[in-house]
């Protein structure tokens, strides 16, 4: 019994920690309710200083790492410039640069950082799922990937060029992309973000696709999509492409799931099988050597307009 209640307490604490740290929705809701939110640090409230005053002491950062970035747009109209992110900073200025009186991102939780960034970036289709993403849930912050001042990449102010950035945390995927047959992200032919939204999506694995459709693949491989007069049924199902291919890389040619193409086909087909509901037919021909390289003859494996057995 004692053991049970200790575990129960642990779970409760974990749940509490999860809500306070990882639920940016709660945080932004609190922020709008009151300026003195206890979710964001105390520095988030106070008097704004004149925008230009920051330049007097942070001249180099201003000129090299702000005025040249997209965020210089925050100096326009009546926005707060640097203070749009670092919070109202009159107290920091009055204190001669008192660092305890200003928001410092390195002291914030990922959810707090996201709450600040998404005051402006929430509405975009691209970033709107971040609060539910695998990344935020695992402590990955906006600033793990973006650096407003020290970007190492001109695109999207990424901390590092994209492939290097993703590989930095995803070692097993790095290994997959080193296999002989792969999507060549190493030379930029394809990027992780062509298939994934790093800010999260509504479907599993942060894949860019409507649920259950492999639009993520067919947007580039349009020829596999059809419609064909003679469709190959599995290409049209929910799992679709991934029945037969791996998405990242493989030791099998054409990034197939299995080494020999006949084993792939025989996962569903079996020689001389009689047609039955939900079961593919045949082949009626045997499995002698002559027939093993199935796609030597059935070349149009994704579907055909001319041949019911995908010969041309
Ligand atoms: C009177 C000079 C002065 C002015 C004006 C000033 N700062 Fe500072 N600021 C400093 C000093 C000194 C530090 C501490 C040393 C450092 O890290 O550069 C500092 C630190 C900071 C930090 C924390 C750096 C860290 O190490 O994390 C931020 C953020 C910051 N300032 C933003 C601003 C903003 C935004 C403005 C304009 C509203 C501003 N400062 C105006 C002097 C100033
Ligand atoms: C879009 C939000 C944003 C704006 C606008 C912004 N900062 Fe920052 N600032 C950050 C973040 C995030 C960091 C943490 C370091 C990083 O990731 O680049 C940071 C870090 C800093 C630091 C710590 C030193 C460093 O380079 O790490 C200083 C000082 C600073 N900012 C000052 C300023 C000043 C001055 C301005 C206006 C000229 C400004 N910031 C505008 C987000 C912002
Ligand atoms: C006060 C509003 C505001 C805040 C807060 C803010 N941004 Fe921005 N952000 C902008 C504006 C405005 C632009 C430039 C216009 C545009 O490209 O949409 C921009 C541009 C960007 C871009 C480049 C988009 C592109 O197409 O190249 C990135 C990345 C970005 N912000 C990330 C962040 C991150 C990370 C934070 C938090 C540390 C943050 N922003 C906080 C307003 C904001
Ligand atoms: C895991 C890394 C990662 C994290 C975490 C992340 N981003 Fe991004 N972000 C990217 C990449 C990569 C791109 C470029 C996407 C592309 O190529 O289309 C991007 C693009 C953007 C853009 C431009 C999107 C557009 O409209 O085209 C904005 C704005 C942005 N991020 C803001 C944010 C904000 C705000 C956060 C936190 C709430 C955040 N990002 C968290 C990696 C990340
Ligand atoms: C051609 C499209 C495509 C590209 C490019 C791509 N992915 Fe994926 N990735 C997928 C698909 C589809 C899945 C889901 C696999 C599944 O459901 O079994 C996935 C799954 C994942 C997963 C979940 C674990 C796993 O391996 O199943 C991670 C992590 C991942 N990808 C990271 C990356 C990274 C990092 C990059 C860039 C270096 C990248 N992906 C490039 C399509 C892609
Ligand atoms: C700071 C480390 C870090 C960076 C940088 C990073 N990730 Fe992640 N990523 C994680 C963690 C941690 C998880 C959650 C654990 C897991 O599933 O591996 C995750 C999860 C994912 C998932 C979902 C996996 C699943 O099974 O649901 C995908 C897809 C993914 N990341 C892609 C990317 C892409 C693409 C980039 C580059 C734009 C990137 N990541 C950059 C740490 C990172
Ligand atoms: C951004 C465009 C893009 C997307 C999205 C994409 N691919 Fe590709 N794919 C390519 C390119 C380009 C090549 C050729 C690569 C080369 O020549 O190295 C390729 C090659 C392939 C190959 C053939 C490899 C070989 O050995 O000839 C297969 C199989 C494949 N992709 C499957 C998929 C699947 C499955 C998906 C969805 C998970 C997908 N692709 C999504 C661009 C894309
Ligand atoms: C029933 C298994 C199967 C399914 C499902 C499938 N493929 Fe294939 N695909 C193959 C085989 C087998 C090959 C190799 C053909 C050969 O030997 O030339 C191939 C080859 C490819 C190639 C290499 C170029 C070509 O056309 O020969 C691409 C690209 C490709 N598939 C993309 C896709 C995409 C995208 C999907 C999902 C829409 C998909 N495949 C679904 C079995 C399949
Ligand atoms: C994921 C299961 C699956 C895989 C893997 C698969 N098939 Fe199929 N195949 C089917 C289904 C289901 C049908 C439709 C049968 C029907 O219409 O009754 C079909 C139909 C066919 C047909 C047309 C038969 C006809 O007369 O309608 C041919 C030819 C065929 N497949 C060849 C192949 C080859 C060659 C491979 C390997 C590259 C393969 N299939 C892999 C499930 C699969
Ligand atoms: C040498 C060419 C050739 C090869 C290789 C071949 N097939 Fe066939 N396949 C045919 C022909 C021709 C037909 C038409 C029916 C017949 O005459 O037997 C056919 C028909 C089929 C059919 C439709 C059902 C039927 O029997 O009428 C399926 C399913 C099929 N093959 C699957 C496969 C699979 C799986 C492989 C690999 C193990 C394969 N084929 C290898 C030539 C080939």
Q: Please state the overall shape, judged from the principal axes of the Cα atoms.
A: elongated
Query: How would you sum up the major sheet?
Result: 2 strands, antiparallel
End-to-end separation in angstroms reads 69 Å
Report the strand count: 4
Strand content: under 5%
**Gyration radius, to the nearest Å?**
27 Å
Structural class: mainly alpha
Low-confidence stretches are: 1-38
Give me the strand/helix succession: HHHHHHHHHHHEHHEHEHHE
Number of helices: 16
Task: Describe what this molecule looks like in 3D.
By secondary structure, the protein is mainly α. Among the domains are: 48-103, no CATH class; 143-204, no CATH class; 215-304, no CATH class. Helix content is 34%, strand content 3%. The chain has 16 helices and four strands. The protein has helices at 2-22, 24-33, 53-57, 59-65, 83-86, 90-94, 110-121, 134-137, 142-145, 162-169, 171-176, 192-195, 215-218, 241-244, 261-265, 294-297; strands spanning 181-182, 230-231, 249-250, 303-304. The strands form two sheets. A two-stranded antiparallel sheet has the order 1-3. A two-stranded antiparallel ribbon has the order 2-4. Helix 2 (24-33) crosses helix 7. The protein starts with a helix and ends in an 8-residue tail after the last strand. The relative contact order is 0.07. Mean pLDDT is 84; it is low at 1-38. The structure holds heme C (HEC) (10 copies). Residues 232-234, 243-244, 261, 264-265, 267-269, 275, 280-281, 294-295, 298, 301, 308-310 line the site of one heme C (HEC).
